[in-house]
Amino acid sequence: MQLGDLPRVNLAHLPTPLEFAPRLTEYLRGPKIWIKRDDLTGLAIGGNKARKLEFLLGQAQSQGCDVVITVGAVQSNHARMTAAAARKLGLEAIVVLNGDVPGERQGNLLLDHIFGAEVRVIQTDEEYVLMGVVEDMARQLRRDGRKPYVIPRGGSNAFGAAAYMEAALELLGQANALSLRIDAIVHTSTSGGTQSGLYAGTKLTQSGVQVVGISAGPPRETVVKRVVGIVTELVEMLRLEWRPHPDDVIVYDDYIGERYGIPTKECLDAIRVAARTEGILLDPVYTGKGMAGLMGLIAQERFRSDQNVVFWHTGGQPALFAHAAVLQEG
Q1: Strand locations in the chain (E)
Q2: Alpha carbon distance, N-terminus to C-terminus of the chain
Q3: How far apart are CA 253 and CA 237, in angstroms?
Q4: 3-44+156-328 belongs to which CATH class?
Q5: How far is CA 301 from CA 45, 291, 295, in A?
Q6: Which of 92, 176, 180, 300 sits in a 20 to 30 Å window from 202, CA-based?
Q7: Per-residue DSSP letters for 226-246?
Q8: What is the pTM of this model?
Q9: Phi-psi region of 312 (alpha: psi -120 to 50; beta: other; left: phi over 0)
């Protein structure tokens, strides 16, 4: 099977730009830094989930579904973009979010409501509790004659990873056009879908590109297990002989801080550095921690000065407004 055989809808503005970051490169005094601008995918302020939703909602449409259910944290980028994509395709959206109900709707949560999603907030950190709520809702919808389509957290399954396998090929094509050798991709990795696709794409093309995930929440072992599982599903779906190996999946969990959704000092510093060197906005939940990880690895001399490193910007800027208090302090 080829990627082109999978059902798909058109949601993202592709290809996204690959930009050299000269002032950030100079500031960090390490390798040459390039930024893959998946914050510019276009759908609902942009972000990496637009790519995944093209394949996921392609499946939903092919099955005749009329309502989409997904899960995420209160400031979930994935929930916001799923709600927008569903409306664009004439589907209803239900987002089941975990965390505390904020005193004011702000950031992604505000946008969920503007897009008309049905929002349920569950105060739990247990994934099985959250998914139990989702399955109960899906069963009730089926009893009511509806056809729900359930999307996992982050859109992270084989279909979502297929989008980032294609994205890896997109990046390699852009690099070839620039006569550029890419040595590493650094990105934030939590639910594992993006890393799964990038890892599969770079390995299957034998590109030699190292894919480095920076966890924004779960411990390294959890993210590696997720990536290996999703990649295994992806290559089985595409009927490929190759299989992933856990020792080959690179994830750092040194930049999480207290927990997912709580920005660290290093995260906030990274946001300000990216903004003040390149005029690029990161977010305090996800990409800020990813950039903090990249900055930390450069400080540890994990990359040479003659190398080219791509920071994959996965979007998430709406969450900035939900963390205004801590961002104002600097």
Answers
A1: 18-20, 32-37, 67-73, 92-98, 118-122, 148-151, 184-188, 210-214, 250-252, 308-313
A2: 51
A3: 30
A4: alpha beta
A5: 34, 15, 10
A6: 300
A7: HHHHHHHHHHHHTT-S----G
A8: 0.96
A9: beta
Active site residue 191: no
Q: Two tokens at 39?
A: 């914050």
Q: Which CATH architecture has domain 49-155?
A: 3-Layer(aba) Sandwich (3.40)
Cβ contact 196:161 at 8 Å: yes
The answer to whether the beta carbons of residues 160 and 125 sit under 8 Å apart is no
Q: Where do the domains of the chain lie?
A: 3-44+156-328, 49-155
The residue with tokens 């209160």 is 74
pLDDT in tens, 120-133: 999 888 888 889 99
- 42-99: pLDDT as tens digits: 999 999 999 999 999 999 999 999 999 999 999 999 999 999 999 999 999 999 999 8
**Which among 62, 76, 189, 196 is annotated as catalytic?**
76
DSSP per-residue letters across 31-100: SEEEEEEGGGS-GGG--THHHHHHHHHHHHHHTT--EEEEEEETT-HHHHHHHHHHHHTT-EEEEEEESP
